[in-house]
Design goal:
It is a single chain. The chain is α+β, with helices and mostly antiparallel strands. The protein has 14 helices and nine strands. Strand 2 and strand 3 form a beta hairpin. It binds 6-diazenyl-5-OXO-L-norleucine.
Length: 340
């Protein structure tokens, strides 16, 4: 924790804005058109049911913090949220138990290793490292309040539904397919247990985590969920304060450093936005104060990130000036220099 001692000053953020409706519509449609024929990458098959996805599916949705929505392609087709759930469960757990406890009990540093790495746990002497990799996500899910695993699961389902602004339901086929084949996640949970990292039965935590990954969403849901994080924790469609502005900020900081796993550096370098990906092909990127951008396309790169989704996000980040690290010289400074 870095104490800032800002008791007498209000914390604020510079946000800027998005262009008008027509331009947004054209750019979102353009992002889809530009990359629709890109056929690099493979559909995930380590969860057997995911292999049935049609590699041609592609949708792009943008929801601004005023609730306006811009969409192109298959934005209504549902798919399992997978790892994108980790971002929102992290936010709910932070809201429930606080920034310091999550920092201390899970961590906020990138592993530099794949999302399901066992070695990352060993190399870090049992630290799950961060809530975006499977080890840290299992540890985070276990911290979700609830008297029983069923209650913890229900709190996650309703919490993620508040982010989406509609009741999200479990995709039973995905859940059953994954729970029968996720020996690796069970092994990671047992390994964490051996380091004394669980206060609950680790296999119950795996079960809840598998359910959260199996929630069915579409690209528009993801864009609304992202827009909620962009909007100080307020869902721009329902007006509900889902998490505090501080928790939304902390979640975005973690997404910037860990959201695309070992490719997070490349993503930030190219796109400059906090984001989270999932193996069924979703990506949600967040532009603080502006909106949430979501893509769905099942072809993945070797780190498990949607290939077309990354390209579409890069295009829109540039076209809309969303990169958090971009700046233009102040006009006054430019004039002074020119007059010298
Ligand atoms: O635990 C798993 O392996 C999946 N339920 C989620 C992995 C995932 O989405 C990784 N993302 N790219």
């Amino acid at each position: 924790m870095f104490e800032t001692d800002l008791t007498d000053v209000e914390q604020s953020a510079f946000t800027g804005g998005l262009p008008g409706e027509e331009r947004l519509e054209a750019l979102v449609a353009g992002a889809l058109r530009r990359y629709a024929d890109l056929d690099e990458g493979q559909v995930a098959d380590y969860i057997p049911v995911l292999a049935a996805a049609d590699p041609r599916w592609f949708g792009v949705a943008l929801v601004a913090v005023d609730g306006s929505t811009y969409a192109a392609g298959e934005v209504a087709r549902t798919f399992s949220i997978q790892s994108i759930s980790k971002a929102f469960v992290f936010a709910l757990v932070c809201e429930a138990i606080g920034h310091e406890d999550v920092h201390e009990q899970v961590g906020v540093n990138n592993t530099g290793l794949p999302f399901n790495s066992v070695m990352a746990v060993e190399l870090n002497r049992g630290s799950p490292m961060n809530s975006m990799v499977n080890a840290g996500a299992l540890a985070t899910t276990a911290l979700m309040p609830g008297a029983t695993p069923a209650e913890q699961w229900e709190n996650i389902r309703t919490g993620l539904s508040r982010f989406a602004g509609r009741a999200l339901e479990l995709d039973g086929a995905v859940y059953h397919s994954e729970i029968l084949t996720n020996q690796r996640n069970k092994a990671i949970a047992r390994l964490l247990e051996s380091y004394g990292r669980f206060d609950m039965d680790p296999l119950d935590a795996v079960d809840i985590y598998t359910r959260q990954c199996s929630l069915a969403v579409n690209a528009t849901d993801l864009a609304v969920m992202g827009a909620t994080l962009a909007d100080g924790g307020v869902n721009p469609r329902t007006g509900e304060q889902v998490v505090s502005a501080e928790v939304a900020r902390d979640t975005l900081a973690l997404l910037a450093s860990c959201g695309l796993y070992e490719r997070s550096g490349e993503w930030l370098f190219e796109i400059g936005l906090p984001a989270k990906s999932g193996v069924s092909g979703g990506i949600v990127a967040v532009s603080p104060g502006k909106g949430g951008l979501a893509t769905f396309s099942p072809r993945l790169d070797t780190a498990g990130n949607s290939v077309r989704g990354q390209r579409a996000c890069a295009y829109l980040s540039r076209a809309l000036g969303l990169n958090l690290f971009a700046s233009a010289a102040h006009p006054a400074a430019r004039t002074t220099k020119e007059n010298r």
